[in-house]
């Protein structure tokens, strides 16, 4: 192989770009965590002193803690429902040929291309007509729609990767189809299912673009609460709450990484 | 699932379309049909300038993401799985982390008492804190950081499918890296480039959290305008019409890119790939 000046220039600029990109991607989250430990009254950089003061305040702040609780249980409900629906649909798409299959597949991934603003107001309007804006349903169903593409993609990938010979062997041994699914298919794709559920969880837990429209009535999720708070003022309290979200998200990513490898997430 | 998506995705979208044809006076009973909202939108120079700016911003964000996301995605695809691990986690983190948290991180970086101002002051480059927030470049920078992972991952997923043998062959034929890139890698990676560009563009033009928090009142983008219309003024028809303009432009760009990708792959990419 020949190496000339252009090669060297490209290699050097590539390395520089990559360094900048990784720093830029990690920096905001890192700084939030650093600033959350300040003992001062305002968000300064570098932070003045070190204390857990703002974490205590966050813990005692009813607004944020209620929102954290709302976010958590909506996310748990969404991941359970998304898993059940996603598995059924993905199984059908993977195993059977039926009319409208292409349509179903396209529909499953369509929430990705509808802008959040459009989905948000559309749902708000629908639930306003149904007189349900004060309930939890708008958030629950909005998040469910958003989570479906991710869940479908993860389950479809693990279904197409596992070896179907094992199922055929079980069927040869006279296992009923239901038993095959329960004893062979489900355990085999369990890592995929778990990461699909976790995906649904993070999608719901972190979402703000659609939720901002759907928390019109009673229930406010944590990201929306942060958004409305930051919209008027910001102080280290939000840094502490945000750090909490960062840690939760990071733990979840590491779990997914353990389960199926971060590569396959993409 | 079909039922779920039809009821909670398709129906609301059409409901919105219906609402966009109402005039304010018929909002409550939901009757009547008028193009008033659309006519007003396209005849008012303020709205058309916001629409234009939103599009320009979307294109800038997508191009910057492409320029820095392509080399990153390419290098990720060529790394060993072990070396890839931590980098992938860094790339995925902003995707899974809530958008407000990222934006809040940027407020710390760009704010009056923020990181950049602290650096400027302590190094003596500036004598007083600079106003970095509430400007278009700030909004664009933050949007780039938010949506860059989409570009990186799209590029990475196509490049992993390109056999490195093709690049070695080109190198053996005395092509330098630039020529190999231009004639082998880029044509083959085009589907990923288009997919990433498309995603980033659609996400950027419909963004509203970032323009609102980083841009404030100074930077108007269509998304934040819609948010204010609906949530503050409760002006449904106007907000719905704008949301529809957004949806249609997003779908239009998607269709155009798909058509372009199809023609490119058949002619150019196909020729090099064989």
Q: What is shown here, in short?
A:
Chain A is mostly helical and 266 residues long.
Order of helices and strands of chain B: HHHHHHHHHHHH
* Strand percentage of chain B: under 5%
- Assembly state here? heterodimer
Mean pLDDT of chain B: 81
The low-confidence parts of chain B are: 267-274
The coarse silhouette of chain A is globular
Describe the protein's topology.
The complex is a heterodimer of chains A (266) and B (274).
Chain A: H1 5-36, H2 53-60, H3 62-95, H4 101-109, H5 116-129, H6 137-161, H7 165-172, H8 177-188, H9 190-206, H10 211-214, H11 222-232, H12 236-260, H13 262-265
Helix pairs in contact in A: 1-12, 2-12, 3-6, 3-9, 3-11, 6-9, 7-8, 9-12
Chain B: H1 2-20, H2 36-43, H3 45-78, H4 81-96, H5 99-110, H6 115-123, H7 136-159, H8 164-172, H9 177-205, H10 209-215, H11 222-232, H12 236-273
Which characteristics define this entry?
heterodimer; A: 266 residues; mainly alpha; 13 helices; B: 274 residues; 12 helices; globular
Structure description:
The complex is a heterodimer of chains A (266) and B (274). Chain A contains 13 helices and no strands. Chain A is mainly α and 266 residues long. In chain A, helix 3 (62-95) packs across helix 6 (137-161). The longest helix of chain A has 34 residues, at 62-95. Chain B has helices at residues 2-20, 36-43, 45-78, 81-96, 99-110, 115-123, 136-159, 164-172, 177-205, 209-215, 222-232, 236-273. The longest helix of chain B has 38 residues, at 236-273. The chains are: A mainly alpha (266), B mainly alpha (274). Chains A and B meet through helix 1, helix 3, helix 4, helix 5 and helix 6 of A and helix 1, helix 3, helix 4, helix 5 and helix 7 of B.
């Amino acid at each position: 192989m020949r190496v000339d000046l252009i090669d060297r220039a490209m290699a050097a600029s590539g390395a520089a770009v990559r360094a900048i990109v990784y720093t830029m991607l990690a920096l905001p989250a890192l700084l939030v965590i650093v600033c959350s430990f300040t003992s001062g009254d305002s968000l300064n950089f570098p932070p003045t002193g070190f204390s857990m003061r703002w974490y205590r305040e966050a813990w005692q702040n009813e607004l944020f803690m209620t929102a954290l609780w709302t976010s958590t249980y909506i996310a748990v409900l969404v991941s359970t429902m998304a898993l059940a629906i996603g598995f059924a649909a993905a199984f059908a798409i993977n195993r059977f040929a039926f009319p409208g299959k292409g349509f179903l597949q396209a529909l499953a991934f369509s929430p990705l291309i509808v802008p959040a603003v459009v989905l948000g107001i559309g749902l708000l309007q629908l639930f306003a007509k149904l007189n349900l804006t004060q309930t939890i349903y708008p958030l629950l169903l909005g998040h469910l729609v958003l989570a479906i593409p991710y869940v479908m993609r993860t389950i479809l990938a693990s279904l197409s990767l596992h070896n179907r010979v094992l199922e055929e062997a079980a069927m040869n041994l006279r296992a009923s189809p239901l038993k095959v699914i329960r004893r062979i298919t489900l355990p085999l794709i369990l890592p995929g299912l778990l990461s699909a559920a976790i995906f649904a969880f993070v999608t719901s837990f972190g979402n703000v673009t659609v939720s901002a429209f759907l928390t019109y009535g009673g229930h406010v999720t944590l990201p929306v609460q942060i958004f409305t708070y930051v919209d008027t003022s910001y102080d280290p309290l939000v840094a502490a709450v945000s750090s909490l979200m960062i840690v939760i998200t990071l733990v979840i990513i590491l779990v997914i990484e353990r389960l199926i490898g971060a590569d396959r997430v993409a | 699932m079909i039922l779920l998506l039809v009821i909670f995705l398709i129906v609301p979208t059409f409901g919105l379309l219906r609402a966009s044809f109402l005039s304010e006076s018929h909002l409550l009973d939901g009757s009547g049909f008028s193009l008033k909202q659309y006519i007003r939108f396209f005849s008012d120079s303020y709205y058309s300038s916001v629409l234009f700016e939103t599009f320009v911003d979307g294109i800038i964000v997508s191009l910057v993401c492409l320029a820095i996301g392509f080399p990153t995605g390419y290098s990720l695809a060529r790394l060993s799985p072990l070396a890839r691990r931590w980098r992938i986690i860094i790339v995925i983190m902003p995707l899974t982390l809530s958008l407000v948290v990222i934006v809040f991180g940027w407020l710390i970086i760009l704010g009056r008492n923020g990181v950049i101002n602290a650096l400027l002051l302590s190094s003596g480059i500036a004598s007083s804190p600079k106003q970095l927030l509430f400007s278009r470049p700030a909004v664009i920078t933050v949007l780039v950081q938010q949506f860059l992972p989409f570009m990186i991952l799209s590029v990475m997923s196509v490049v992993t499918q390109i056999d490195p043998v093709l690049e070695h062959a080109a190198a053996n034929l005395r092509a330098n890296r630039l020529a190999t890139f231009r004639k082998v890698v880029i044509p083959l990676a085009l589907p990923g480039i288009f997919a990433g560009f498309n995603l980033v563009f659609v996400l950027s033009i419909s963004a509203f959290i970032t323009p609102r928090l980083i841009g404030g009142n100074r930077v108007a983008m269509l998304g934040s305008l819609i948010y204010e219309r609906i949530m503050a003024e409760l002006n449904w028809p106007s907000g719905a019409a704008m949301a529809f303009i957004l949806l249609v432009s997003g779908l239009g760009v998607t269709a155009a890119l798909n058509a372009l990708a199809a023609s490119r792959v058949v002619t150019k990419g196909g020729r090099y790939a064989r």
